[in-house]
Every structure is written in structure tokens, then in C-alpha cells.
Specification:
Elements (H helix, E strand, L loop, with lengths): L1 H18 L1 H6 L1 H18 L8 E8 L2 E5 L2 E4 L14 E6 L9 E4 L5 E8 L7 E14 L5 E11 L2 E12 L3 E7 L4 E4 L4 E10 L4 E4 L13 E8 L6 E3 L12 E3 L5 E5 L6 E9 L8 E10 L5 E4 L14 E9 L15 E4 L7 E2 L10
Parallel strand pairs: 4-6, 16-22
Antiparallel strand pairs: 1-4, 1-14, 2-3, 5-13, 6-12, 7-10, 7-11, 7-13, 7-14, 8-9, 8-12, 15-17, 16-23, 17-20, 18-19, 18-21, 21-22
Amino acid sequence: MMIKTIGNQRLTARLLHSVRNDRRKESIHTLLLTPIIAFLIMMTMGIVSHADAAQSTYNFQRSSGTSYGGITTNWSESCSTDPSDDAYKRTTMTTSALACTDIRTSYTNNSPQDFMILIKSTSYGSAYDVTGVDTKWQIEERDIINTTVRFELGYVTGGSFTSFGYGETTVNNASVYRTVDLSSVSGTAPSGSYLALKLSKSSGNGEIRVYLGTDADGTGNDSGKLTVDETPSIPDAPVLYDTGGSEQLSFNNIKQNTVTPRFRASATHSSTFDRFQIEMNTQADFGGTAYTQTFSGTYSSATQYNLLANSLSPSLPTTDGVTYYVRARASSDGGSNYSDWSSGTWSFTYNSSSEDPMWFQTTDEQFDT
């Protein structure tokens, strides 16, 4: 009987759909304009969920005896005292510039050798996508030998530096102010890590002297600066699934006697993330009455999870035959920034009678799936 009932429902729905074709053709312009208008409204209301990139500039600072990401700083010298030559200097960078004229460090050992690392003084509270802009330095080569200095952007965690990539500049027997392009360098810094910039001699054996501060070597140049774009790393838009697991799912186009539907979803991210959000709405363009629930936890990338919507706000009504449209999104920073919503049309129809769940299509939008 169930197979026959579902078959009759499908036939009836298809016939209704055919009858509506003329009406749908007449309103094609309206249908085409609707998503455009909806998008413009969302933009005006600030609902679009992409996180905005923030450009930040960090500056060399002196620091000694403090651990950042497992690396302890060792720049104890004052503005008028130079560090020992050939020491691997570990210090910090902040948004405040250092008003120094004479501070510098020198490195004479053969290439390739690391000679300095700057570590941002605060860690990331969640995963961040980082794209380099540039870094500015007053550099001198003192031996008339072409020597290349590498500026490597990355992050520090667990006592180790992880590189996103680098830019380079070559100097020869002169004190020069160089802006090194880092715009092709990018990566994701995990939660709890520290942004870092590492300097090394990548080729050439000349003595390299690096001047630092807002009046580097008395030139008036501001040296030891790093500019980057930083954006909270958000997951990709989630995917909803019809099948999976051992529990009854609210699959697409289901008609079901429950006000606590169970949906199955996954999202892809560079690391773990901590939020799913489900919205059920009385309109396919999500402009009607919304019923939402946020799910908190530690979710792994590309792993499917069952999400039981048992705390929807407001609660789902028990009105027979009402169709709700469903979408999901995800966040990795506690909901401050969300991914795009899941794509496609996904529907759930409430059934007041205690029948088994069934496939059900009756609205125009459901036939667009």
C-alpha cells in the first residue's frame, strides 16, 4: 500500500507540475529577478557571511626571555647596543613601531643560514588565512659580494616555524631600503599559532647588516615592518546528505511526522571547526519564517555528522502539510564568521499523521531539486 500511495502522490505531483508550466513561463522574469533582489537585500542588511580581510602592519620590537609558540626571545640589547655578530636573533613584532636609530644586527656566516625571526606577540584565537603584502627593511652588504636575503612568512607553534613561502632581495656594498613583495605568499595559520617572519641569507657570503626602527641607520626609513592580510579561516559551504548512519534521516523532499528532524551534513576546512547551523524556512528564498538551531562541538573536515534539530528556535509548528526549506552553514570561530549556506533546494514537509516517512513533492521549488 505504501508503494502505491507514494506512486500516486508522485503521479499527482507531476500532473500538477505540468499544469503549472504555463504560469511558470509567464513569471519567468520575476523568477530570474528574485535571487538578484534577494542578494541585494542581503548585502544591504549585512547578512552575507564571508569574513572580511583585515590588513595589518607589524613592527620589530625588542624582547628577551618570553616564549611565543615555544620559541624564546633573546634580544636584550638596548637601542644603542648592537647584538653580537652571527647570533640567531629571536624577537617579537607588534603593531607599535620602535623609535630607534642605531639598533642593528650583523651576520657574516656563509649561506644558507637563518639569522633572525620576528614573532607576533599575540596568538591566533582561531584559524586564520594569511596573505603577505610586503616587508620593508634597511639592509647593508659590507663585502662587495652579491648576497641574497630571504624573508619567509609563516607561523610558529610547538617550538617550530612553518613556512608559507618567501620573497627575496639581493644587495651589494650599500645600505639600501628595500620593499620585498610577499603578495604571492599565503597559507592558513592554525588556532593558537603565532604569525612569524624569518630572515636568512639564501646565497652569497657577504656580511649582512640589518638596521631597525623608525629611523634606521639615521635614514628616516622605518625598517623591520611586515604587512599582511588576515582573514578568519571559514569552512566551505556544508553538504547535506540523504543517507548515512543508522538513524532515520530527514532526507531531501521527505514528508515526516516529527518536529525534531535529523539532518546529516559535512563541511570541508583546513582544520577542525566548531559550529554547524541549520535553518528551516517557510519560503524557498528563505525570506519567510525561520526556525534555526546551532550545533556546537569539535567537527573534523569532510566528516559527516547527524544533526538532530531538537532545539529549534522557535519550535517547529505542528501544522499539517507545511513545507520547510532547509540549509546549513559552518563556523570555525564560535559563530563570529560563518561559511556560505549549503547550495541547492532541500525540503522537509510536516505530516500530522503517524505514517512512515515518505518522499513528497508538491511545490514548484521542490521540483527544482
